[in-house]
Amino acid sequence: MPTVRARDLTVEYESVCVDSDALDAARLMAEHKLPGLLVLDERGEPKAILPASQMIKVLVPAYVIEDPTLAAVVDEQHADRLCQALAGRRVGDCLSKTAAPPPIVDPDDTALEVAALMAQVRSPLVAVAEKAKDGTHLLGVITASHLLHELLGKTGTLSSTPGA
Amino acid sequence: MPTVRARDLTVEYESVCVDSDALDAARLMAEHKLPGLLVLDERGEPKAILPASQMIKVLVPAYVIEDPTLAAVVDEQHADRLCQALAGRRVGDCLSKTAAPPPIVDPDDTALEVAALMAQVRSPLVAVAEKAKDGTHLLGVITASHLLHELLGKTGTLSSTPGA
């Protein structure tokens, strides 16, 4: 059985730029029910993962996050104005100060190398990017569940293994 | 516009019991491409979220996680034996020692209360459960992206708002 490489497991994933409009990014997550977006820097290199929960944190007024019991007494009029928090903001403004850059693997890395990195950083996805002289080119991502499918599939333990 | 409650936003979600077979749980995640599973305790109460990345951590030998460069030299024969790590193990054995119990909301909590909790704990999902005399009954979960859809939808900022 040939060695499975990162490039074989790579799937497309919605990404936005740090300079993209924050409200557009929130809409993209909401409409496609995405748990997060991959954020690229000005040069198109993976910079961060923006989880949907972080976008919610930006939307919810700070005094409500500090004391969630206040949420029950904020009237609906105020709730309607929540997304004004995103008006005029960029995706870069919404990133958590502590957001780590996403783990990045090389397209030639083996499935086990990807698994080791994912296990180490406990990330639900890794970015797959090729390093070239003119910068880093994003190919897509590998999700933890897709990789799990590959690792289990190799041993024929999946009932729906293709071609089985 | 009537106040939206947690029960209105609740969706079904795949769950397993702490006593479920670990390999079955891994297969469930892999086949349905789930980022994680909700784990219930013996009484059916939400106990933890088991992310797919944690399951990968259980599969990958410890010496490879400590030194991912070893992954490149582990031959394919060994990779084939990875899922033996799950044989005879229970879901409870796979949980991280530091796994926090999932945030739980009441079906009557408002969307803003749910948002405040999600923002506070930065969880991609919260469990919705009803407390009764005979214990806690799970109704389902609310995902961050679904909640984001609700919060943005209220203000008509989504192009695909139903009935718009």
From TrEMBL, chains A, B:
Pfam families, per the entry: CBS
Classification via PROSITE patterns: CBS
Domain of life where this protein originates: Bacteria
InterPro entries listed in its UniProt record: CBS_dom, CBS_dom_sf
Domain (CBS): residue spans on this chain: 95-160
Keywords for the protein's UniProt record, in alphabetical order: CBS domain
Protein name: CBS domain-containing protein
Organism whose genome encodes this protein: Streptomyces humidus
